[in-house]
Amino acid sequence: MHFLSRYNFLRRISACICLVSLFLNTLSPVFATDPADIITVGSHPASSTLVGTKLYVMNSNDNFVSVIDTATKKVTKSITVGSHPISATIVDTTKLYVNNSGDNTISVIDTASDTVTKTITVGSHPVHSVLSGTKLYVSNSNENNITIVETTNNTIVKNVDTATAGVIPYPSYGVVSSGKVFVLNVGSNDIGVVTTSSNTLTKNISLTGSPASARLIGTKLYVNNLSSSNVTLINTADNTITKVIPVEAGPIYSVVVGTKLYVMNKRGYSVSVIDTATNAVVATIPV
């Protein structure tokens, strides 16, 4: 997926979250009315990560990370990183691993000094990473693999293919559960299951469409199939599909509130509410 398309993808997700938050009244109003509540950062902020009282904002078109003091609502520092920083993963509250999708690197930020201490070269177009133990699993979305980084010394352990030979899966997202990393392969419409003890691909789970994102509840993984009109439910203990839940067109993201899963449907202009006890849709909310 091209960077700008991915940025628009993330922006649509953010808009959906705002709408659901307002409907549920689970957050304070998301639209700032006081100028003091509007914080200027860099160009195209794609995501943010909270570490203590500091919010780190990835400015995907400006190649730096803005550090916001959430108590004062002021930007305290701008940290230069690689090209097109798009997401980040925190390790032990002391190190922030920033995925630079434009130059195939990860910038390691020391959160005490807010300086870059290491730059790690990974695969093509890293867009997402997840932590399992001390190892960081990085999705290289323009290749057919993930890169595994040992965070204790910031070295590359290995690259692991997430699909069969000859297929470019464009891995874009990962979820850790049951000693495994479940890698969403957008290009091959499946999930690559990587066992963390051996760091090998042990299975591919075929889906009905292109997986956009997933939400883990216990050992149940709810996968949003963007190019279809359903959510695939996977038991992460045994890697089996237990149910395919019909929703409206283009499920792109989901949020858990209590026992309900709220699924944002990009092309259906709606939110499907799934009861996670019965795994059935109990309501559809137009947005």
TrEMBL record:
<dbReference type="InterPro" id="IPR011964">
    <property type="entry name" value="YVTN_b-propeller_repeat"/>
</dbReference>
<dbReference type="InterPro" id="IPR051200">
    <property type="entry name" value="Host-pathogen_enzymatic-act"/>
</dbReference>
<dbReference type="InterPro" id="IPR011048">
    <property type="entry name" value="Haem_d1_sf"/>
</dbReference>
<dbReference type="InterPro" id="IPR015943">
    <property type="entry name" value="WD40/YVTN_repeat-like_dom_sf"/>
</dbReference>
<keyword id="KW-0732">Signal</keyword>
<feature type="signal peptide">
    <location>
        <begin position="1"/>
        <end position="32"/>
    </location>
</feature>
<protein>
    <recommendedName>
        <fullName>YncE family protein</fullName>
    </recommendedName>
</protein>
